[in-house]
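Entry 14. Ran structure prediction on the chain below.
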Amino acid sequence: MAVNQPPSDQPEIKYQGRKTARTGSEQRRRTILEAALRIVVKEGVRGIRHRSVAKEAGVPLAATTYYFKDIQELICDTFILYAEKARENVNRFAKKMYEPLENADGKKLAELTTGPRLVQVISEQLTGYVTDRLVNDREGLVIDLAFHYEAVMSEPIRPLAQAYDEQLESRLIEFLNLVHSSHPKEDAKMLVSTLRRAEYEALLRPKDDLNSASIFTLIERQVSLILKIEAQTPSQPY
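Output, structure tokens:
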């Protein structure tokens, strides 16, 4: 029995800076935004300035002011570029989330979508998503935290942050609907909050001190509470 992934109506996030028509111009614009992202990792959002970004990007100062009329526009578009990259990661994760269910026969599918086995399957997938980001995209997580803080402080960034947050939530809602969650929207928000908590705590520790088993236990507990299914013990594959 095949399980088809439902279509995802993810919110569109549009760039605010000067539009470009030529390939070379678009490449320079992206080079500037990539440089701004590197500055965020090193100095935080407050490090984004036309002069510092131009120096990091290796372009004339006039190039940054040409594409972005002010710092706020540059910050917004830097966040949008990051959101685009994050969306690709979320889509890959969503595809992997369905893998245990795809092409399963009726008996196997019933086993995977009910009882303690369901808790384990979801927890394994979510733990894999978090640990992959911590190992392979640690800088991206730093950018994530920096921009969420900026959204709290800056009203123009807030709708961008909200649209960004809905990317992962919407894919989790789709999956939770499939496994008959009674409150998929609220449950998705709770799961995202748990993932962020796990990511934040891991970022406070050295990179080589990643405790995947602890992350799995935290996520498994939340999933079991959401689905009202007691998890198997022990059930830590990490």
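The chain is about 70% helix and 0% strand. Will compare against last week's run tomorrow.
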